[in-house]
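Review form for a predicted model. The reviewer records the input and the model, then writes brief findings.
Reviewer: anonymous (R2)
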Amino acid sequence: MLTDQCAVKRIVVLGGYGVFGGLLSQALLRDNQFDVVVAGRTIEKAQAFCTSIGGGSPAFLDRADPAFGDALARLGPFITIDAAGPFQLYGQNPYQVAEAALEIGSHYLDLSDDPGFTHGITRLNDRAGTLGLVALSGVSSVPALSSAVVETLQEGFREIDLIETTILPGNRAPRGLSVIRAILSQIGRPVMVTRGGRSTYVTGWSGLEKRKITSTSTADLEHRWSSFVGSPDLALFPKQYGAESVLFRAGIELPFLHIGLYLLSFLVRMRLVKTLEPASKIFQTIADWFGPFGSDRGGMQVLLQGPGKDGNNLERVWSLIAEAGDGPHIPAVAANVLCQKLATKSVAPGARACLGEVTLKDIDAATAHLSVATSIQTKTWKPLFEQALGASFWTLPKEVRELHRTSDQRNWVGKAEITRGGSWLVPAICGIAGFPKEAAQRPIAVTITACGDKEVWCRDFGGRVMRSVLSLAQDPGDGIVTERFGAAAFDIGLEIKNGALMFPVSKGRLFGISIPKWLLPISETQETSEDNRFCFDVKVSIPLIGPIVRYRGWLEPG
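Model under review:
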C-alpha cells in the first residue's frame, strides 16, 4: 500500500488505454504529483499506449482474474480508478474492483454511467468510512459534471419541475467497445425515469426528437436527433434535488445512424431479440466505417424548469460545446479534479455516488486548455396555455394556473360525476369519442405530458381512457388552441369570464375536412377553483342531436 507520506502518489487506471481511460491517464500525467499505471487485460495494448504518450507504466490487470486483488495490491495504488466498463454488465460481483481497492487501503473512483451500479455503491459506505477512504461512483459527465451544473442552476427556483440532460457528441469522436456495449444494452429495453413525481418507464432509444444546443459564448450546435437513454441522474436527482421529472437524452450526429438504431430498437420491443448488445463489435465496425463523416463538434446541455422564487416560470440552461475533437476529454475531467482533491485530503470519506463533489469552477479550470465553451442562459418559460392567453393567463385562479403549468409531465387525481344525453345516437358518439359512461361518482386520473410545443392529455375514468393532443392554433397571445382527438381536430377560442376559463369551439375538422357549423360540437366547458381546489365542468352537445355528455368534478395533484 502506498501511504499519504509518499511524495509521488500512484494512481492505477483500469482500462487506462481505452477512450476515456486513456484521456484520463494523459490528464493525470500532466500533474507531476502522480505516478500513473495504465492497466488492462491486454499488456501489449497498455505498453503500446504508454509508448505513444511517452509516459505511464503499463500493467496487466483483469477484474475477472481470481488473483485480481493480489495483483492490485502489488501495484500499491493511492487511488484506483475503474475506467473500463461497461458497468451495467459487471454481473454477480459488480463492486469487486472497489472492494479490492478498499481492502488494500486505496481510494476508489469509477466512470460509471449506469444508474444501478452508481446508486448501489453506497453498500460500501460503512466500510469505506471506517477505513477513512473514499469510494465515488459516476465520476464522469454524469452524475459528477451534471450535478455540479444543477448545484449552480438551482439558485432562483422555488421548486424544480424538470431536469433534462442532453449529450450530443460529434461523429468523429472515438467510440470504444465498452461505450457501444453500454448503449446497445439499453436500446429497446425499459429505462426507469421519474416523471411528474412518479416512477415510470420509457423505452431506451425512444422519444425520437431533434435537439439544438445553444450558447452565448460560441456558435450553436445544430439540431441533431436525440432519444431517451439511461443515466445515474435518473435514479439520483429526484431525491437529491426534489425534481418532479428527470430525463436524459443522447444522440448520434449522423441522422441515418441514429434513426437506424431507433428502428432496430423495435426488434427488442417486439421481443424478437432480447438485447442488441451481442452485436456490439458489428456496430463498432459500422461506426468506424462512418467515422470520417460528420464533425468534431459535440455538446452537452442541462436544463432546469420550474416556478421561480418570484412566482414566474423559470428556465435555466447550461451548455457546453466542444470544438476540435475535444469533446471526449469531458468524461474524464471530473476524475482528474477529484484525484487532485484526494491528494490534498479535501474529500470526505465514505462510498457514494459522485453528487456535488466538484464545482463548475473546478470544471472550468480543468478544461481551460481545451477548445470548450460554456454558458448559462436564464429566461422566463411559458407553458402552452400561458402562450395562448398571454398576460391574461395570470388573472386565472392559482389552482387553474397550476394545472396548466406542465414542463414535462404532471399527474392529477380526483372524482367526476358523469351524465349522458338521451338521444339514441349518444352511445355511438360517446364510444367513438371515448367519452366515459354515466356514473354518480367515478375516480378520474389525468396525466398531462408536454411534448415539444404540444401537450398530451390522458384522462382515465376508472379504466376508460380518453386521449387528446393540444397545441397553439395561431400565434402566441391569440387565445386559440387546437385540440385533436384522433382524426378530429377542434379550434378552441379560450375565454376568461368571472375568473373561469371557458373552452368554446370555433372550428372543427375531420380528416382535415372542415365540419359544417350545423354539425360542429358545442362546448360549454369551464375550469374554476372552489375551496382551493381545481374544478371542471365539461358539457358537450351537437346541433340537431342535443346533449352528448357532461362530466364535472375536481382534481388535485396526485
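Findings: The radius of gyration is 27 Å.
Further findings: Residues 158 and 309 are 5 Å apart (CA to CA).
Recommendation: see findings above.
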